[in-house]
UniProtKB/TrEMBL annotation, chain A:
<comment type="subunit">
    <text>The complex is probably composed of two ATP-binding proteins, two transmembrane proteins and a solute-binding protein.</text>
</comment>
<dbReference type="InterPro" id="IPR003439">
    <property type="entry name" value="ABC_transporter-like_ATP-bd"/>
</dbReference>
<keyword id="KW-0547">Nucleotide-binding</keyword>
<protein>
    <recommendedName>
        <fullName>Quaternary amine transport ATP-binding protein</fullName>
        <ecNumber>7.6.2.9</ecNumber>
    </recommendedName>
</protein>
<comment type="subunit">
    <text>The complex is probably composed of two ATP-binding proteins (TmoW), two transmembrane proteins (TmoV) and a solute-binding protein (TmoX).</text>
</comment>
<dbReference type="InterPro" id="IPR027417">
    <property type="entry name" value="P-loop_NTPase"/>
</dbReference>
<keyword id="KW-0997">Cell inner membrane</keyword>
<dbReference type="GO" id="GO:0005524">
    <property type="term" value="F:ATP binding"/>
</dbReference>
<dbReference type="GO" id="GO:0006970">
    <property type="term" value="P:response to osmotic stress"/>
</dbReference>
From TrEMBL, chain B:
<feature type="transmembrane region" description="Helical">
    <location>
        <begin position="442"/>
        <end position="460"/>
    </location>
</feature>
<feature type="transmembrane region" description="Helical">
    <location>
        <begin position="124"/>
        <end position="141"/>
    </location>
</feature>
<dbReference type="GO" id="GO:0015871">
    <property type="term" value="P:choline transport"/>
</dbReference>
<feature type="transmembrane region" description="Helical">
    <location>
        <begin position="216"/>
        <end position="242"/>
    </location>
</feature>
<feature type="transmembrane region" description="Helical">
    <location>
        <begin position="606"/>
        <end position="628"/>
    </location>
</feature>
<comment type="similarity">
    <text>Belongs to the binding-protein-dependent transport system permease family.</text>
</comment>
<dbReference type="Pfam" id="PF00528">
    <property type="entry name" value="BPD_transp_1"/>
</dbReference>
<feature type="transmembrane region" description="Helical">
    <location>
        <begin position="467"/>
        <end position="484"/>
    </location>
</feature>
<keyword id="KW-0813">Transport</keyword>
Length: 340, 683
């Protein structure tokens, strides 16, 4: 897991309010009390994250916790009050307007909660819009447009207008449009929050399918912990503008940093998140065919429970690292306490 | 059951049982009473104390703003220059730029293209045939919506031809066709500029406020001074009058674009220019088109006023008829403006609605098929031109076939006046003696120091120190300019009209909100009232009541009624459903719901409606000057006829100051009410 870092930010602050600059000038990292006393809003406070190439990085938090502000600081749609944003190793905040336009044209794509489609353009025109503003030729835009259109399963809807589509279809257009320039870095700000639960589920599956093919570096925003757990390689949990924990879904479940994080994890079906590796007992020896340590508990639970003895567990290299018995699985399935 | 009783109790505690005569209220009531008493006896009091200056501001104390402005204007026009470039060169250049397209439009629609001068002139090409224009209008209506609109628009233009108003109407249409693109295009550009530069908006906003509150007459005078009498001056005045709302609407519409769309545009890597023209403007097209529609309506509204400084067309016909008191002719020309306004308004509204949606022309068809309406119009135009030499009826609507109703209207008025003169007279006299005269005496009787003190106090209570200073300064300036009595007559005329409009309008609005059927009927009436150009109200009222303050008041009420109704209906309708249900569950009767929940919660909206009513009433003053009022509007009108720049500007600004004071006070009160109800947070 030593993939290169694609995007990172160091001590990023975004304060709103009349006295924001003044406050940061006085004390470079103001405390809660200072912020409140100055009457400013701490939308993002001292955020530092590293996002690896090809990773799905989810930022999770309740509404108002500063997710959108943070992601816009990362994309430099908003100027941070303080801090550094490094994109492919260079400081994004030093880029000139012209350079920013070039970076956005070729390296970044973004999907929005309420789709942000242009009402006066057809589906196809919307999708190729990022290419047309670059002045790419008609022939090429058309082929590329149709390619991404097919990728999101909207072939045949080219000439519809956004208002003639369902919410799910509109977001497909939004996704296609953000992919048409083949960006490396893909921002999605609550892309599925405005959709009905069933459609949301379907879109999440599709999203995973797309990513399996495209291997983008993804910053995905959501307020839905289920969604975060389902999609993320790693999750950053935000509260009141602060990042309180960055971890894999499994780590969040096993070792929540605060009670606040623990509260989120409480209602998550643990067997769908935890892997067998988290339950393995090195002192136990099992019998029968080994199961992989990175298999989800939910997928193998039936086998382990049905087996009479403990089941051996193998790591990625095929070495046996221990075994799991049905007691451990039962505790995950029915218990509420810690998994180990 | 107990629950219900308990809730009732809670309501009565809120509603009545609380001691309502708080010290603050007692003081307010006391001050109002004192003001009324002073209004009635102020004059006598001043005489008794031998301090006449209390009611009559001594002329020795006034500042000669008028003559100073006149001198400054004279210098500007006669001497001002930058290097070799005189100010007059600039005005001439502007005039020339506007004149060229206007002359072309007038030739094309009304006068024909001529070569040579005077008697030796020969016609190269006649004006477009009436048939071609009607076909074009029908095609436009069909393009913008459907056959229904096409029929309406075609019918309106046919009316203009059949009733002998064609030539004047085409002259008017030509100035609309020039003023609207300049006003809308210029407004769009300035609006975009203000959107992109927050500083620009901060500079522009108070200027727009002023431009929208200064009555047009005020700047007619300097325009007349700079550009001379003629259609160009009229066009410039029209453009200045019609552009501010476009700027406002554009900036608002751009600001109203979903922030996500803006973010998207930037993430797509648009340049600032691309962001404006390819993302923001198209996304806001629908709202922006509302601005265009406003420009069109305001332009039409200006036609009669513009005719005072040289615009021809229907406005001139109305004005001339009003001056002759030829009711029939005035009514016909006025009706023709209404008909023209309706056609243009409906078409532009349909166009606005359609603007957000790209046309659904199937691609891949020939140019002719895709533009078949345009082709048809061109063919008719050319054919009518060619055959027009042989068949004159194709060129001009045959005169023998024109209808006229002028005699009919004159007859109706004569009939009404003969048979109902006493009733009309009785109504008029009753209003004058019991309502208008007392208000007038009150307004003129209040000593000016007291009035200014009260304004400052009101400003302070409603909006703090800044508003208090504003009220004091503006009213002080009016006083210093020596316009106090005329300003008070203005306040009286507008005040009486606004009171009447409120008393009529708010209940109508409540009815419109609560009853579906009533709402529809009232909606149609109000829509119609709002589409009509303002001076149209004057004509029938003059017919029945002749000239004077009462006529002015009735015309103002008719013109200014709409927002009172609209806002009240909107406010009552938009009271949160939860509150209504809470009230119903608490056992409120329908009447109690209205009195205890709907009306109080709608108060902020109602206040905003009254604010709009005041603004409209003030802008109507200049038109009612035609019926011989004695207020600031008349002052401007006289200045106009004498081309007295200083006098016109100062009086116009005085009206603007009154408007600003009223606007700020009422808005602050509405805001206060919103904060009290938790609909807006204080900041
Ligand atoms: N332009 C702004 N001005 C002032 N406050 C803002 C602005 N944008 C966001 N905020 C505040 O910053 C906080 C974080 O907002 P946001 O990033 O939109 O949260 P989220 O996306 O997590 O719902 C909120 O309290 C919000 O009110
Ligand atoms: Mg958000």
């Amino acid at each position: 897991m030593t993939r290169p870092i694609k995007l990172s930010c160091r001590n990023v602050w975004k304060l709103y309010g009349a006295n924001a600059d003044q406050l940061l000038h006085k004390s470079p990292s103001p405390t809660d009390a200072e912020i409140r006393a100055a009457g400013v809003i701490g939308a993002v406070r001292d955020a530092s994250i590293d996002i690896a190439d090809g990773e799905i990085f989810v930022i999770m938090g309740l509404s108002g916790s500063g997710k959108s502000t943070l992601v816009r600081c990362l994309a430099r749609l908003i100027e941070s009050s303080r801090g550094q944003v490094l994109f492919e190793g260079s400081d994004l905040l030093q880029a000139s307007d012209r350079e920013m336009i070039e970076i956005r044209r070729h390296k970044m794509g973004m999907v929005f909660q309420h789709f942000a489609l242009l009402p006066h353009l057809t589906v196809l025109q919307n999708i190729i819009f990022p290419l047309t503003v670059q002045g790419v030729g008609a022939q090429e835009t058309n082929t590329r447009g149709r390619e991404v259109l097919e990728l999101v399963g909207l072939t045949g809807r080219e000439d519809y207008y956004p208002r003639e589509l369902s919410g799910g279809q509109q977001q497909r257009v939004g996704i296609a449009r953000s992919l048409v320039t083949e960006p490396d870095l893909w921002f999605l700000d609550e892309p599925f929050s405005a959709l009905d639960p069933l459609i949301r589920r379907e879109m999440q599956d599709e999203f995973l399918r797309l990513q399996a093919r495209l291997h983008k570096t993804i910053v995905f925003i959501t307020h839905d912990f289920d969604e975060a757990v389902r999609l993320a390689d790693r999750i950053a949990v935000m509260k009141d503008g602060e990042i309180i924990q960055v971890a894999t879904p499994q780590e969040l479940l096993l070792r929540p940093a605060t009670d606040y994080v623990a509260e989120f994890t409480r209602h998550i079906p643990r067997d769908k998140v935890l892997t067998v590796g988290a339950l393995v007992d090195a002192n136990l020896t099992g019998s029968g065919a080994a199961i992989m340590a990175d298999a989800r508990v939910a997928d193998v639970a039936e086998r382990i429970i049905a087996a009479d003895t403990a089941v051996p567990v193998a790591d990625v290299d095929g070495r046996i690292v221990g075994a799991v018995d049905r007691v451990a699985v039962a505790r995950v399935l029915f218990g509420t306490g810690s998994a180990t | 059951m107990t629950q219900r009783v308990a809730n009732r109790h809670a309501f009565s505690v809120n509603g009545g049982a609380v001691r309502w005569l708080t010290p603050r209220r007692a003081m307010t009531l006391g001050l109002i009473a004192l003001t009324l008493v002073l209004g009635k006896y102020g004059g006598d009091l001043a005489k008794a104390l031998d301090m006449r200056w209390l009611v009559k501001f001594p002329s020795a104390w006034t500042v000669p703003f008028k003559s100073q402005i006149t001198v400054a204007m004279k210098w500007l026009v006669e001497d001002a220059h930058v290097g070799p470039l005189a100010f007059t060169d600039l005005t001439r250049a502007i005039a020339w730029l506007i004149e060229q397209p206007y002359q072309f439009m007038v030739s094309f629609l009304a006068k024909g293209f001529w070569a040579g001068q005077g008697a030796a002139a020969t016609e190269i090409l006649p004006a477009a045939s009436w048939i071609a224009v009607i076909v074009a209008v029908i095609a436009l209506g069909h393009y913008c919506r459907d056959w229904g609109l096409a029929t309406l628009a075609g019918g309106c233009f046919l009316y203009l031809a059949a009733f002998g108003q064609w030539d004047s109407a085409m002259v008017t249409l030509a100035s609309v066709a020039i003023a609207v693109p300049i006003g809308a295009g210029g407004g769009l550009l300035v609006g975009i500029w203000a959107y992109r530069h927050p500083v620009g908006e901060r500079i522009l906003s108070p200027m727009l406020d002023l431009m929208q509150t200064v009555p047009v007459f005020a700047y007619l005078v300097p325009i007349l001074f700079m550009f001379g009498f003629g259609p160009v001056s009229a066009l410039i005045a029209t453009i200045i009058y019609a552009t501010p709302p476009m700027i406002r609407v554009t900036t608002l519409a751009l600001k109203g674009v979903d922030p996500e769309i803006v973010d998207f545009g930037r993430m797509a890597g648009t340049t600032p220019r691309q962001l404006i023209w390819r993302v923001l403007v198209p996304s806001a097209a629908k709202s922006i088109m509302i601005g265009v529609n406003q420009v069109i309506m305001l332009t039409l509204n200006m036609v009669i006023i513009a005719s005072m400084i040289g615009a021809g067309g229907l406005g001139f016909d109305v004005l001339a008829a009003l001056r002759r008191l030829d009711i029939g002719a005035g009514f016909e020309a006025g009706l023709a403006i209404v008909v023209l306004a309706i056609a243009v308004d409906r078409i532009s509204q349909a166009f606005a609605q359609q603007a957000g949606q790209a046309p659904t022309v199937p691609a891949g068809q020939g140019w002719i098929r895709r533009h078949r309406r345009m082709v048809l119009v061109l063919v008719v135009l050319v054919v009518a031109w060619l055959l027009g030499r042989l068949v004159p009826a194709l060129k001009d609507y045959p005169e023998a076939q024109t209808l006229t109703t002028g005699a009919f209207w004159s007859e109706v008025v004569r009939y009404l006046n003969i048979n109902y003169f006493d009733s009309f007279e009785a109504i008029k006299v009753a209003f004058l003696t019991w309502f208008m005269l007392p208000v007038k005496q009150m307004a003129l009787g209040i000593p000016w120091p007291w009035a200014i003190a009260m304004l400052v106090l009101l400003g302070w209570r409603a909006g703090g120190a800044r508003l208090a200073v504003l009220c004091g300064t503006l009213s002080g300036l009016i006083l210093l300019a020596g316009l106090w009595p005329k300003a008070m007559i203005t306040v009286y005329l507008c005040g009486a009209s606004v009171i009447l409009a409120t008393v009529i309008g708010v209940p109508l609005g409540v009815v419109a909100a609560l009853s579906r059927r009533g709402g529809q009927v009232i909606g149609v009436v109000i829509d119609t009232l709002q589409t009509l150009p303002s001076f149209v109200y004057l004509i029938p009222v003059v017919m029945l009541f002749r000239v004077g303050d009462f006529t002015a008041m009735v015309a103002i009420v008719l013109y200014a009624l709409a927002p009172a109704v609209r806002y009240a209906a909107h406010g009552v309708r938009n009271v949160s459903q939860d509150l209504i249900e809470a009230g119903t569950v608490s056992g409120c009767s329908k009447w109690q719901l209205l009195r205890l929940i709907r009306l109080p919660m709608a108060l902020p909206e109602i206040l905003l409606g009254i604010n709009q009513t005041i603004m409209l009433a003030l802008s109507m003053l200049v038109i009612t000057a035609l019926v011989g009022t004695r207020d600031l509007g008349q002052e401007v009108y006289i200045a106009l006829t004498k081309a007295d720049t200083g006098r016109g500007l100062v009086a116009g600004l005085a009206i603007a100051f009154i408007a600003i004071i009223a606007d700020r006070l009422v808005s602050a009160a509405a805001r206060g009410a919103r904060i009290r109800f938790g609909l807006e947070s204080p900041s």
